[in-house]
Structures are given as C-alpha cells and as structure tokens.
C-alpha cells in the first residue's frame, strides 16, 4: 500500500509540473538564445564589468549614445519608470547603457548622462573594436550617419533583459510601455 501511495503522489506531482502554464511575456521571449552570452567592458565608474558582475539581479541592457535626440532618452526614461513601478523590487534590477559611440562618449560624459536619469544606472564603454564585438554578439545594428559637420548614429532600439542567473531572457521592444516591461520583469523575478 505504501508503494502505491508513493507512486500516486509522484504521478500527481509530475502532472502538476507538466501542467504549469508558461509565462506569457509582453516582450519577445529569447530564452536560450545562442548569443549575448557574456561581455567585458569598462563602466563609467572606472571598474570592469561582465555578466557575472550582476549575478543575483535582473539586468536590463540598452545600446545607444549620449547625443541621441529621441530613442535613447526615451528608453532610459522608460527604465526610470519601470524601476518606480517595481517599487520594493526595484533594487533587483540593474539598468546598463552600452555606448555605441565611444569616440564621443567619454566616461565623464557617460557618468553625467546616467546621473541625469538615475544615479544607479551604469554606462559601459569600450574602444571601437570592443564596441563592434559586443554589438555583434548582441546582434545590435549601429552605424555612423553624417549630419552636417558632425554625425549621428542609427542603431537598434531593443532593450535586452537577463535573469538573476545571468541568462538572456527577453528582448523588449521600444514601443512597449513601462507597465508592460515591469510586468515582464516581475514575472522573471518571481520565477
């Protein structure tokens, strides 16, 4: 009789495990993607960072440049709003901005730019080769576009989300609201 009870219990547990409803994200679920595995870049604070540096936190990464007139400030403003919506879970999210314009985005400028949004946000930079490598690894498009006597940058406007174990999980579209993004992050934090 004991054997039958144990088998019944195990059968019930396996049915429960199989019947879990997968999480429906607002963003694009890229769990298990074969890209964006790691990076090593310098922070505006002078320290070196890799994915392991953020273990235990969800990580939201956006690629951009400080002189961007609209997409970058909008994405970073949305990240500020996301952290407010997360309330007591806000400290479980690290926002990282990776510059695609290392020629102009100095550590000092990046520090000021981050501070304008949230002093807890971190900007990362590298030389031209490191920037090309990380952009390629994350499948981020960017290019210089001449503009008068200077230039601007065209670039991908996706934000990437890693879970607390350092695994890439989501691509958040630029059109998504802060509420939709916060809901996705809450679901990841609860998993």
Automatic annotation (TrEMBL):
UniProt keyword list: Copper, Signal
InterPro entries to which the protein is assigned, alphabetical: SCO1/SenC (IPR003782), Thioredoxin-like_sf (IPR036249), Thioredoxin_domain (IPR013766)
Domain of life of the organism encoding this protein: Bacteria
Domain Thioredoxin stretches: 30-191
Keyword flag Signal: yes
Signal peptide: 1-24
Family: Belongs to the SCO1/2 family.
Name recorded for this polypeptide: SCO family protein
Species, as recorded: Undibacterium umbellatum
